[in-house]
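Entry:
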Amino acid sequence: MNTNIRKITYTAIAAAIVFIVTRIVTIPFGTTGAYINIGDVSIYFVAYLLGGPLAAIAAGIGSALSDVSLSYVVYAPATLVVKGLMGLTAGTLMKSGRFPAYIAACVIGGAIMTLGYALFETFVFTFPVAIADVPPNLIQWGGSVVIAVILYPVVKRIKATTHFGKL
């Protein structure tokens, strides 16, 4: 298969996976339409498998579509940017494929998510609303990092036994 077709196909499938995983478990919080989800775990997997630029596309689109499907449309543009930056950064930092880099990328990706949404909510809502939404985002950040780290051997095996290394 042509490498460009493979990249487009894998990115589209990755966006669908991010969407599904984000959409499966949602816990609404606050009054703004924010919700806790486990989609960040899939973003870390996609970042590891596809690398920064393709992970940015898949993470941003898949996560933003989840917001739209859950009627949290106000968050969709911010999610596209925040989750895209999260995927780009994590995928770039994970380039070596080593476990310490994977952990660092997950932690930094979660920081981008938490800070990004706090900034968005400060501008769109108010600073007190943004501050009130930080603790649930910290829970999502920490939980996603723990799950992603536990599942590292799985994503490493997937990359080793598929065509992802050729992208």
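Residues 99-124 form the longest helix (26 residues).
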